[in-house]
Amino acid sequence: MFNVGDFVVHNGHGLCSILEITHNDSLNTDFYKLQTNHNKMTIMMPVDKAPLFLRPMLTKKTILDALEISVSYSDDYVKDNKERKVVFHDLLTSNDITDTIKLLKMLYHLSSDKKLEKKSLGSFDTQFLQQAERKLFNEVEISCGLSRTEVQSLIFSYLKSQYAF
Description:
Blueprint: E1 7-10, E2 14-24, E3 29-36, E4 42-46, H1 50-53, E5 54-56, H2 60-69, H3 81-93, H4 97-116, H5 123-144, H6 148-159
Antiparallel strand pairs: 1-2, 1-5, 2-3, 3-4
Helix pairs in contact: 3-4, 3-5, 4-5, 5-6
């Protein structure tokens, strides 16, 4: 069970803080009232469903260990748009930091390939890139106590990438 003030990562919304824990008498259920970090949206989450959607924010050590390992991940991506969309969606919503890192590594490679072709990322690839960066960058920023610029530099140094945009 999480406590008020805890940071958690929601598989669909990324980093959130727990504002309060309330009880709904008519449903006889406890709820977390969450606020997303990136747009301050409020989400109500039944406490008993939380393990399906939430995980604790990772520690600085866990994040840095995951980034260290990331150099061994392949940056190959699925060429077919429909298949790639399914793979990217699964990686983004898994709520495992290694999957988010793998996704970003593939997206940075895809973006680099598109630039060489003098093209830009398609709309769904762009959306996945933005969501994955937001999800990872927000957690790293809070967990490691870094500025957004420092987070970008850290992530890009491990993923051997340049700014995608």
